Amino acid sequence: MKLVIANKAYSSWSLRPWILMSMLEIPFEEDVIPLDTPEFRPRVDAYKAGSTVPILVDGDVTVWESLAIMEYLADRFPDRGVWPADPAARAFARTISSEMHAGFRALRAACPMNVRKRHPAKDRGEAVTKDVERVTHLWRTARERFGAGGPFLFGAFSAADAMFAPVVTRLLTYSLPFDLAVRPYMDAVLGTPAFRAWHAAAMAEPWTVAHDEADEPLAGPFPLPA
Ligand SMILES: N[C@@H](CCC(=O)N[C@@H](CS)C(=O)NCC(=O)O)C(=O)O
Prior knowledge:
Blueprint: E1 2-5, H1 12-23, E2 29-32, H2 40-45, E3 55-58, E4 61-64, H3 66-76, H4 87-102, H5 105-110, E5 117-118, H6 126-146, H7 159-173, H8 183-190, H9 193-204, H10 210-213, E6 220-221
Parallel strand pairs: 1-2
Antiparallel strand pairs: 1-3, 3-4, 5-6
Helix pairs in contact: 1-3, 1-7, 1-9, 4-6, 4-7
């Protein structure tokens, strides 16, 4: 299988299937296409999929859109626990993953993923505050109702954690205020071997994009858990 992704420093949608496949030990090779470069469009178009990454290629099957990739993986590897086994937990996992896929626009627009940096706190607007309150509410609810079996939203790592992994990083990159009850969950995601490998590769990338060069003061490196 091949997973086509963009820069690990910035590509939140790429991180989602990448961390899921890595955590569930689904073997794949990757093709990294750097954003905002002349090679991006022709290399993505060569896959004859959608206009964005991630793209999953499995033999003659090509899937794009992060949630569709996860559903394909759930079908293809039914024993890996892409979604929680319990039907009520699975319904909630799919619901909040869909909410993530379609929503949180203010947070995504104001705070683009950057796993290489940390910026000082500043007012990012009421809509961002509401998005952060909503996302931490969803995490708390999942942990309280379904998380007893492990440190992740539904105990074991699942597609829902993969969908929210970029948001975990955004809260820290932009020093956003959040309900500290979710910090252990966030540290569990950031402390996975998969996220650490993603972060190390991001740090080694040579590319930057325009929003990373914007006039945003720096508070330090991205804070990985000890
Ligand atoms: N809804 C898509 C969003 C994918 C997306 O926006 N990917 C970005 C990279 S993080 C991209 O390919 N941007 C390039 C472009 O839009 O031209 C998904 O879930 O996969």
